[in-house]
UniProtKB/TrEMBL annotation, chain A:
Keywords: Signal, Transport. Belongs to the bacterial solute-binding protein 3 family. The keyword Transport applies. This is Glutamate ABC transporter substrate-binding protein. The keyword Transport applies. Residues 86-308 form the Solute-binding protein family 3/N-terminal domain. InterPro entries: Bact_solute-bind_prot3, SBP_3_CS, Solute-binding_3/MltF_N. Residues 22-75 are annotated as: Disordered. It comes from Paractinoplanes ovalisporus.
Length: 320, 445
């Protein structure tokens, strides 16, 4: 069953990649990946032995106190960042509310970007000392692992499989997967979309989760979620399935779309870093710990997600 | 005729293959009597004369048609294919730059995008008229027509979303850019290549080498036949000169010299048009397309906001090609034309200046100063450098276009003369030859 689903996915990915024969392009929002890459990215995960059971929410315990901004401990990765003069944040630019490009200002902003800015603030005392690097969804793990960015904050679910390659911070947001369909659709949940085309970003956990739905919707991969919305509006796909918050950002841009059903997965968001620098993960966790306590988390939530109701209590940090 | 037949002695049977048909045998028999020989000579001269006239007409008309097709269809198709290609590349760049500018699209960029799209669709319409109904070029034109409509629609949706502050506009733009770069531009390239092949074939057709060779052979045959006839007559009769035949020879000589000079002049013009017109034109066109691609790569690298990526690698490849000695941009254009050399030199210098600015853009972006990198890339100074390089390329392209048109027009000169005067001269030669020989033939009656 799993194999059949994979095959369907691969075939679809191949069709979506038809346009991209020349090889080196991706367009404006993502550059390194094409739709065709999905078939490739699936493969190594499928080949790998399943990750041993773990608690994906449990991160490295932070130090009791934070160093003073601008005075990072010698020999630490934070000092390296400080010497460089900027924190390199890997994120996307088309996930409204979390990290998207504001068409008016051209700046990338959102909940995830603010998470990164708070880390920069803690290192430099200046939240603007941040370089935003847009990475494709299926490059989030590798970008953090190989150090091409310092930290990834990009609606990224902490799971046991990814824990083998990167260190995650403690959880900063609890999302869950839902599905977005056209306003006139009679579907009540993703189970009603058997055989229909449902889009998700290549390399996201949402994409894998579509394949696990019993009624077998056809998963369609696009380089980024923005491309899924384009495909949805051009009637190339019947629905989009990913985390409720990302879908809310899409529904906000399309009055003919609605989000249906209950969360059918748990997607705890965390920031990813290279596992070569455990001290950096501890530092980030300390910053998160402080921000949960002093109301920074709450105000960030209200700024971006306030339209969906009052801020809940921040996710409780768990440590190994 | 009856005289000749009556005077015919019985041919020895050994000389005759047993089953020779009667007509051939009778004609074969003609050569054994003097009037028969004269009749044969008349037939040969008139036949060669008529052949020369006919071939002159056909050769002239065919070369004329080929030359017109080259100048009025194949070459313009090449120019239009280039226009489609560069307009699409420029539209992609412009859309990406407008995106980078943020906020409301700058009016200048909107106008440029609209102009690009108009240029592409106009060129596409005339290209459609110039392509055969089937074949690679026609396929490319069809794919382009459909694709450009989709492209325009995607960009329009991107703008509408952008106008309302919806980030999905950026995704539409990226979809449009993908379509442009991965589908439309390769089709434009295919059209350009097949137009290039048609131009190459066109030179062959314009030369009409087969017909021209046949014309030369028949004229040569006619001259030899005339010379031999006159030698025969001066030996067999007491008259050294036969005035009509002399006139016929003179006319044939004039005809031959005229035909040769028209051919040589046409071939020279065609060679010049090919080597100094079409060839350099294609190289300059390639330079312009490559330069526009580089500018697009720069904008897309910044728009992707992922640091130096695959577009930047493409930029490096393009620059390597454009700065290469004896490549499409840096070449001895000054040997063709002093002004052209100047234009290409300046284009190359300006492009190098632009590449230097681009290096700065990359340095800024790679060191985390994204906003400054964007400002520099789409700022006036860099834009002017690039636009100036592009204007010099435009001028160089016009220079070669004009040269080509002049040469092709000149190549067509004289072909009409050959088509009309050739058969008339040949007819005159026939009449004179007939008159000259008939006088001798009469003597046998």
């Amino acid at each position: 069953m799993r194999i059949r689903a994979l095959l369907a996915v691969t075939a679809l990915a191949a069709t979506t990649a038809l346009a991209g024969c020349s090889g080196d392009t991706g367009g404006l929002t993502t550059d390194t990946t094409q739709a065709g890459d999905t078939s490739v990215t699936e493969a190594p995960q499928a080949e790998r032995a399943p990750a041993p059971a773990c608690n994906p929410r449990a991160s490295l315990r932070p130090a009791a106190t934070l160093p003073t901004p601008g005075d990072m401990p010698a020999g630490s990765y934070m000092e390296e960042i400080q010497k460089r003069g900027r924190l390199v944040l890997g994120t996307s630019q088309d996930t409204l509310l979390f990290s998207s490009r504001n068409p008016f200002t051209g700046q990338i902003e959102g909940f995830d970007v603010d998470m990164g800015r708070q880390i920069a603030e803690a290192i430099f005392g200046d939240a603007d000392k941040i370089q935003i690097k847009v990475i494709a969804y299926d490059k989030r793990v590798s970008s953090a692992a190989d150090g091409s960015v310092d930290i990834v904050a990009d609606t990224m679910t902490a799971n046991c499989d990814r824990w083998r390659d990167v260190n995650f911070s403690s959880i900063y947001y609890e999302a869950g997967q839902k599905v977005l369909v056209s306003k006139d659709s009679k579907a009540k949940s993703i189970e009603d979309l058997g055989g229909k085309k449902v889009c998700s970003a290549a390399g996201s956990t949402s994409f894998e989760n579509i394949g696990k739905v019993r009624s077998k919707p056809v998963a369609v991969a696009k380089p980024a979620f923005g491309d899924c919305l384009v495909a949805f509006q051009r009637n190339e796909v019947d629905g989009i399935s990913t985390d409720d918050t990302i879908l809310a950002g899409m529904a906000a841009q399309d009055p003919y779309a609605k989000v249906i059903g209950d969360k059918f997965t748990e997607e705890p968001y965390a920031m990813a870093m290279s596992n070569k620098h455990p001290e950096f993960a501890r530092f980030v966790n300390a910053v998160l710990e402080r921000n949960r306590a002093d109301g920074t988390w709450k105000s960030t939530y209200e700024r971006w997600l306030g339209d969906f109701g009052a801020a809940p209590a921040p996710p409780k940090a768990q440590y190994k | 005729m009856s005289t000749a037949l009556a005077a015919r002695p019985a041919p020895p049977p050994v000389q005759q293959p047993p089953r020779r048909p009667g007509v051939l045998r009778r004609i074969g028999g003609l050569r054994h009597t003097s009037p028969g020989r004269l009749q044969l000579l008349i037939a040969v001269l008139v036949a060669l004369g008529l052949l020369s006239g006919l071939v002159a007409g056909v050769a002239g008309a065919s070369a004329r048609a080929g030359t017109d097709d080259l100048g009025d269809r194949a070459q313009p198709l090449l120019i239009e294919a280039e226009a489609i290609y560069s307009a699409l590349a420029d539209a992609d760049t412009t859309a990406a730059q407008a995106f980078l500018a943020g906020g409301l699209e700058p009016a200048a960029l909107t106008r440029r995008y609209d102009a690009d799209l108009e240029r592409a669709t106009t060129a596409l319409t005339s290209a459609a008229r110039r392509t055969e109904e089937n074949g690679r070029a026609a396929d490319a034109v069809r794919a382009l027509s459909a694709g450009v409509a989709t492209y325009a629609e995607l960009v329009a949706t991107a703008r509408a979303n952008n106008r309302q502050g919806k980030p999905v506009g950026a995704s539409y733009l990226s979809e449009a850019s993908r379509l442009n770069r991965e589908t439309l531009q390769p089709q434009a390239r295919a059209l350009f290549d097949s137009a290039q092949a048609e131009v190459d074939d066109g030179y062959g057709r314009a030369g009409a080498a087969g017909w021209m060779a046949l014309l030369l052979f028949s004229l040569l045959g006619l001259l030899i036949a005339l010379a031999l006839t006159q030698r025969y007559l001066s030996r067999r009769t007491h008259r050294t000169f036969n005035v009509p035949l002399l006139l016929a020879t003179a006319l044939t000589l004039v005809f031959t010299i005229g035909a040769i000079s028209i051919m040589v002049s046409q071939q020279t013009r065609l060679d010049r048009a090919a080597n100094q017109g079409s060839g350099p034109l294609a190289s300059i066109a390639e330079s312009r397309i490559l330069a526009l691609t580089a500018r697009g790569d720069e904008a897309l690298t910044l728009a992707a906001r992922a640091g130096s990526g695959p577009y930047e690698e493409d930029f490096d490849k393009v620059v390597a090609r454009l700065t290469q000695e004896r490549g499409p941009m840096v070449n001895s254009y000054d040997q063709l034309d002093w002004q052209l050399g100047q234009q290409m030199n300046r284009a190359s210098q300006q492009f190098k200046a632009y590449v230097a600015a681009h290096k700065q853009v990359r340095t800024l972006d790679n060191s985390g100063q994204y906003d400054r990198a964007v400002d520099l890339a789409i700022g006036t100074a860099t834009t002017n450098q690039f636009e100036s390089a592009r204007q010099f390329l435009d001028q160089a392209l016009e220079n070669r276009k004009a040269f080509f048109t002049d040469e092709i027009d000149a190549a067509g000169n004289g072909l009409g003369l050959l088509t009309v005067l050739g058969p008339l001269l040949a007819l005159a030669v026939c009449v004179l030859a007939f008159a000259g020989l008939r006088a001798r033939l009469e003597e046998y009656r």
